[in-house]
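Lab notebook: predicted structure, single chain.

Context: the supervisor wants predicted structures on file for every construct in the current expression panel, including those that have not yet been purified. This is the next one on the list. No modifications to the sequence; it matches the entry in the shared construct table.
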Amino acid sequence: MEVPPDDPHGMPQTLGTLERQVVSFFVDGVRVLGLPRSIGEIYGLLFISQEPLSLDDLVNRLEISKGSASQGLRTLKELGAVKEAVGATDRRTYYEPAVELKRLAGGFIREQVRPHIESGKSKIQQLARSAQSIEDPERREFLGERLDRLSQWMRSGGRVLPILQKLLGQ
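Prediction complete. Output recorded below exactly as produced.
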């Protein structure tokens, strides 16, 4: 296993070249979703590992703190992206990735998107009340139109999510 002296993606030197590339791929993916880097690192390493890994394995291989690994695993479990492996021979808990796209997307919708849409409805109402206090009628009208557009987006999202979840089997 050849390890370059300076990895441009900041991947730990304890990983092989292919492992670093896969981990980097998932780090890029979670960045798009606004999730912490450690979540992509953990999922990426679990994804490319042939055997389930323990918390300590993740900490050592990824060179991350135990707290970061623990929080990342917790988030990934909530999203349905990681599950505990069965048949461990020692007292440690081992983890493996969920690799079904419908499970990953469904978990993300359930844990990240749906709560955002629900909280967004009340935020838009609050914004509308604030916009009413704007004295300039032209500005108030413009803001009202933009807030109406946001409301339409939220309603559309609320209608699409159940369909997506049903398609994904969630």
